[in-house]
Amino acid sequence: MPSFNIPHDRDKKLPLTAGMGMWSTHPIPDTPLGSVTLSDGPMGLTGGRVDERDIALLSPCGLALGASWDRVLVRRVGDVIGQEAQRTGVQALLAPNLNLMRSPMAGRAFELFGEDPRHIAEMGAAWIDGVQSRGVGCVVKHMVCNDSETDRRTMNVVVDEVTLREVYFWPFERAASQGVWGMLTAYNRVNGIYCAEQHQAISQWLKADLGWDGLVMSDWFGTQSGIASFRAGLDLEMPGPARHMGDKLRELLDENDTARLDDAVARLSRFAERVSIPSRYDPAPQAQRQRTQVLEEAAAAGFVLLKNRDNLLPLKPASRLAVIGPNAQTPCFQGGTFARVALMPDLITPIAALHQRFAHEGVEVEYAQGVESDYRIPPLTALALRCDDDEPGLEVIYATSRQGECHRERRNASSLIWFRDMPGVGDLLALDDEATVTVRTRFIATRTGVYRFWLGGTGTISLTLNGDTVAHFNGEALDGDIMGKLMQAASDTVEYELVEGVTLNLTLEMTLSRSIAHGIWFGCQQPQTVDLLAEAVACARRADSVVMVIGETADAGLESIDRHTTALPDHQVALINAVCAANPRTVVVLNIAHPVDTHCLEQAAAVMVAWYPGQEFGPALASVLAGDREPGGRLPVTFAREETDYPVIDLTPDSHGNLTYHEGLRVGYRYFAARECAPAWAFGYGIGYADITFGETLLHQAEGARLSVAFSLYNASPRAGKAVVQIYLCPPAATGDAPLLTLADFAAVTVAAGQSATVSVPLDDRLFRRWHPDKQAWERQTGHWKILTGSASDTITASFAVQVTETGVLITG
């Protein structure tokens, strides 16, 4: 129970089961516990307005942190994010995301730590520990099986209970056992039941079996039935005001619900008490530099070097370095979900960082874009926009038919989104009038040719250019839920010819009606006046070495949308082929956050995956390419040779809305191992700059104690380096089934230059258990097990046999 007594009056308790506002809970009556302020935050603080004005530090994405395999470092990143929350007055974060990358097509893959439940659980626990050490709560998401985005609000995951408990629920179980303060239920259904109504997962597994005392809340607008969710164990419906719970439950509850109501209020009170400690944020410039240094270190620690022919990296002294690719100038720092972070000003791009790093060595750095960026909607803000008063940005004017103009503001964004509240207009759900949003700006054309403009939104929109209305868009006619509309950002385009030096005045006007949210988006692509590919090839030929930075854009990884292919865009593949042919000393840096087709990378001398590395991408990349830091990452996901080798490709539910998890326990690398299918690059794989070899590996067991694996490592190189030791288990084979290869534990180890190091990793006895649905319990799986050790799921250096009995585990070989 919390330290403060919860209210006894039912009329005071009921409102507490729903949020007070979009990002806040109700204060606890008759106690000092106030409203809790929440924020989305897997990569940093989004701010309550979810737009470009609430700037915050941006960390590497989940896959990048997962690629570090470094619990200590990930905890430090969590600590930085916790400090940012304190700086901004946020008390709890909807993070981390503990779902699995079941398929490389998952649209939200970048938020995830990887494809293995135990690896995810350990990385998540470290991040949670760092954040909560600052007195900031974590609300882990999305429980459970929100592993894809297509039709996520209606689709039904069909999965057997053993797989559900051992794979998809496991990271949440680990978070609960480590003391996370909150959990967020997913939108989807599992075996026919909406996640917010999953009594077994919420009330039985979490609250009863694990004895977890935290708060369970719904994802935003993710409650379908208030009474069913409440009785299943959901404590808090978000956001507020109440839609299905809170006072909406008044006529639905009976005396049998009294204890459940007390439990919900006690959990909210405990949550509010836990996050009510005073801030310990240090605003000093030195402290801020230390925080950004952690983010740079984390970015580099997640870079995965996949190949390095003839030791091209780190780059050797040279006279000319070619930097090619759109992502060197306009990198993808993060994904495009509602959890995107407003970036700090003046971030250092990769090309700028490379100029800075190599200039003092006398290296001439030449840049060529190579191809256009692959924006779904090219940002309008890439142009030099001006308002009527000649200040930079866009002018946004809000009006209603009754009031006329009621608010105006200056913005600097290519999409505007409003949840529940719109400036001057008020609560969008209470809107009983017709409202309009007008966006006005202008720019001077820098090139002569045809400009393409994009327009879209959730209302009826018109686009006017230099006084001519040239296009219309009807967002009200779009199918789907409003959240899906916002993220999918459907749009139309129109072409308009301009002459260099001419001023273009642009006006978008959207008429809208009542809704939980609204949005408008717009963009522009300038005419291309040079042959980018020919320019890049010429640049590559002049250089001693080439660094090519390609990949995705800030609107690539989205909510509500999954991918349809792992292939890079055709023009990027053409760029890789042409540049590698022109200069065989080419490094390809992949600014992506999911596995990609690898065939186009065969001619590159070196390949490195940078993921979405956060705000310190530029400095981290320059330091790794120069050899100041190691590329410390190991793959948290499998890269297949062929797209058809993945266990799951199509994430579209069937005609009944069902998405069957047909691969069962064999997710990710387990599927490749069971089929004896060689990947292009395996789970756990990655190379650094140091030459570290495995020496003797021993399996120990003191009398009456659990097992431990001792690794000996030797670094033969003149620089320190990192190794990631990995332990896998092969349980007894079920009849007719191949044994499963499962990650048991791991450790990231730094080995000094020319030195040896040893590390001992204990193995928890619980690793040898299986879930029994009929008994609703974990039990030892007796029989002959194998313990395998190595540096990747397909690179095993030692093997041991053990016998698991009802009473213990014995080493047999």
TrEMBL record:
This is Glycoside hydrolase family 3 protein. One of its GO terms (molecular function) is hydrolase activity. Transmembrane segments: none annotated. InterPro entries: Cellulose_deg_GH3, Fn3-like, GH, Glyco_hydro_3_C, Glyco_hydro_3_C_sf, Glyco_hydro_3_N, Glyco_hydro_3_N_sf, Ig-like_fold. Residues 723-793 form the Fibronectin type III-like domain. Belongs to the glycosyl hydrolase 3 family. Keywords: Hydrolase.
